[in-house]
């Protein structure tokens, strides 16, 4: 049977929090708004842009804010100011999962363009078999991206795990019926992950392997 590991991107595969915060600050400032503190702002990472803006600033033209954010991020990328570094241990984790016959996928609140840039930066254009972004799906925690990823490769929920750093990811995983692995190295705290529905907690990428084995072992 096919084993599928679906990864969130920002806060799980790559540490892009500083860049995202700078783009958020630029977008809100352009509309005469004050950006909430960094720790608070990073809690919306992973949501689709309009939903993220709604959480940050309940009053405002959220669609316009989302477009301004996109342009700010695009301008930063053109200026070489975008940092999306791999978390330590992620490359090794992907190697271990692939060696154990796991198919890899991504489900992210990024745009198609943003995800393509991350994959190209790290030489991953062909590494992930299934890719789903906010451009084509409802915002997390809706299960659409996870369900589509399973359909792409023919995987069943009991053979699929989703690794993410936010409660939004955990809610998506639970709604799709897949194993929910909360990554504490990202932007939500352990308690938020548990409250969001995490069935497993990984404090380092290497710990995802045991969670993956336990999830599939439950249904062997």
What is the mean pLDDT? 95
Strand order of the largest sheet: 5-4-1-6-7-8
Uncertain stretches of 5 or more adjacent residues: none
Gross geometry: globular
The major sheet is characterized as: 6 strands, parallel
- The quaternary organization reads as single chain
- What share of residues are in beta strands? 5-15%
Compute the gyration radius: what is it?
Answer: 17 Å
The total count of strands amounts to: 8
Alpha-beta content class: alpha/beta
Instruction: Spell the H/E element sequence.
Output: EEHHHHEHEHEHEHEHEH
Question: Helix count?
Answer: 10
Q: Which range best describes the helical content: under 10%, 10-25%, 25-40%, 40-55%, 55-70% or over 70%? A: 40-55%
Through-space gap between termini: 10 Å
Q: Can you walk through the features of this model?
A:
- The chain has helices at about 15-30, 40, 50-55, 60-80, 90-100, 110-120, 145-155, 165-175, 190-195, 205-220, and strands spanning about 5, 15, 85, 100-105, 130, 160-165, 180-185, 200.
- The chain is an alpha/beta fold and about 220 residues long.
- Helix 3 (about 50-55) crosses helix 4 (about 60-80) and helix 8 packs parallel to helix 9 (about 190-195).
- The longest helix has 17 residues, at about 60-80.
- The protein is globular.
- The chain starts with a strand and ends with a helix.
- The model has no long low-confidence stretch (mean pLDDT about 95).
């Amino acid at each position: 049977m096919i084993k599928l590991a679906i990864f969130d991107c920002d806060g799980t595969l790559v540490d892009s929090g500083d860049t995202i915060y700078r783009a958020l600050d630029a977008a809100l400032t352009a509309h005469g708004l004050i950006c909430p503190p960094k720790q608070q702002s990073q809690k919306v990472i992973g949501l689709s842009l309009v939903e993220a803006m709604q959480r940050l600033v309940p009053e405002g033209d959220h669609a316009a804010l989302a477009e301004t954010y996109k342009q700010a991020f695009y301008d930063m990328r053109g200026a070489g100011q975008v940092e999306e570094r791999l978390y330590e241990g992620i490359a090794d984790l992907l190697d271990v999962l692939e060696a154990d016959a796991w198919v890899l996928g991504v489900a992210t609140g990024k745009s198609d363009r943003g995800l393509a840039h991350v994959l190209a930066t790290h030489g991953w254009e062909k590494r992930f078999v299934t890719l789903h972004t906010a451009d084509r799906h409802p915002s997390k925690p809706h299960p659409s991206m996870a369900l589509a990823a399973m359909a792409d490769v023919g995987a069943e929920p009991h053979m699929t795990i989703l690794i993410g750093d936010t409660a939004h990811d955990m809610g998506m995983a639970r709604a799709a019926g897949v194993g929910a692995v909360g990554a504490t190295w990202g932007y939500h705290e352990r308690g938020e992950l548990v409250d969001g529905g995490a069935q497993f907690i990984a404090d380092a990428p290497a710990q995802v392997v045991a969670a993956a084995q336990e999830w599939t072992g439950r249904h062997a």
